[in-house]
Design a protein that fits this description.
Layout (H helix, E strand, L loop, with lengths): L2 E5 L1 H4 L3 H14 L4 E5 L6 H5 L8 E6 L1 H11 L5 E6 L5 H9 L3 E10 L2 E3 L2 E5 H6 L2 H4 L9 H11 L4 E7 L2 E7 L1 E5 L3 E2 L3 E2 L11 E6 L4 H12 L9 E6 L1 E14 L2 E21 L1 H11 L2
Parallel strand pairs: 1-2, 1-3, 3-4
Antiparallel strand pairs: 5-6, 5-16, 7-10, 7-15, 8-9, 8-15, 10-13, 11-12, 13-14, 15-16
Length: 293
């Protein structure tokens, strides 16, 4: 089985050569059968991964949640295993790995949203506005650890409620609100533990409907989220289901594990035990050591 390190040059930027050298050094030291792949302006991640769809390898997503999302969407339905080396802005999926994954193979659910898939968290409304704000996410003057918090401050000032129609099971709800977070994993926004009890292989979606309709209410929710007390917040409705649909009057832009998706209707459903994630703590520790982390 070959190790394919799929590097996202756009999230690593000036750190690219350091990561290439670190991975190369550790892979040789551990005597792995490996190859380093790097996307570019002319060769996308999807173009590169197309070559491995009929193989049986371990595909490492090297970067943030966005590159992991593209690896998941490219490798679902193949015999390849997926792994990740966190090097992006959020790295939220990796936080969940540390909580839940065992060494070796881990069988994980996916959530299908329209014609895309995500493994961690999708957000809609104000959260998506923050996650999709390139003026903050790609701002080299804002430290990575502060980017989500800066985005929160900006979009509280720009706040406007969204009108969503939501359907799950036999229930339906139409309301003005701040945001909806749909979870398979536990963390988002650069370390916010939104889904405290969520598991990657329980066959269920955890949807958090935030019925905050003004800045004060939204701020109260965010403070409770920071404290890990949001399940007790009066503005929060927590739904567990295998299918969840969001409908809006006008097209909006959602965010699926760091990737944008525009639509008026988002139909989400769980695909149980859809992919195999590979966890090799020794390899990650060695690479982090080589990188000086």
């Amino acid at each position: 089985m070959k190790y394919i390190f799929m590097i996202n040059r756009f999230s690593l930027k000036e750190r690219l050569e350091k990561f290439i050298k670190g991975i190369d050094t550790v892979a040789k030291k551990m005597k792995l059968d490996y190859k380093i792949e790097i996307n570019s302006e002319t060769t996308s991640t999807e173009d590169i991964l197309e070559r491995y769809k009929d193989a049986n390898n371990i595909i490492y997503a090297v970067g943030g949640d966005g590159i992991l999302n593209r690896v998941v969407n490219s490798m679902y339905g193949t015999k390849n295993k997926i792994a990740c080396i966190p090097a992006g802005t959020g790295n939220d999926f990796n936080r969940s790995i540390n909580d839940y994954f065992v060494e070796g193979d881990n069988i994980v659910d996916l959530i299908k949203c329209n014609d895309k898939y995500f493994v961690n968290v999708a957000c809609f409304g104000v959260d998506a506005d923050i996650a999709n704000d390139n003026s903050i996410v790609h701002n080299k003057f804002i430290p990575r650890a502060l980017q989500y918090k800066v985005g929160v401050a900006k979009h509280i000032l720009l706040f406007k409620p969204y009108t969503f129609i939501m359907k799950w099971g036999k229930e339906s709800l139409t309301t003005d609100l701040s945001l909806v977070t749909v979870c398979n994993g536990g963390y988002y926004g650069g370390g916010f533990h939104v889904n405290l009890d969520g598991m990657y292989n329980d066959g269920l979606i955890d949807a958090y409907i935030i019925n905050a309709t003004n800045r004060r209410q939204l701020l109260n929710y965010l403070i409770s989220l920071l404290k890990g007390k949001h399940n007790d917040c009066k503005y929060v409705k927590h739904v567990r289901t295998d299918k969840f649909t969001i409908i809006t009057k006008n097209e909006i832009v959602g965010n699926l594990d760091g990737e944008e998706l525009s639509a008026k209707k988002f139909e989400m459903s769980v695909i149980p035990k859809a992919v195999t994630f590979y966890h090799n703590k020794k390899l990650l520790d060695q690479i982090n050591k080589e990188l000086g982390k």
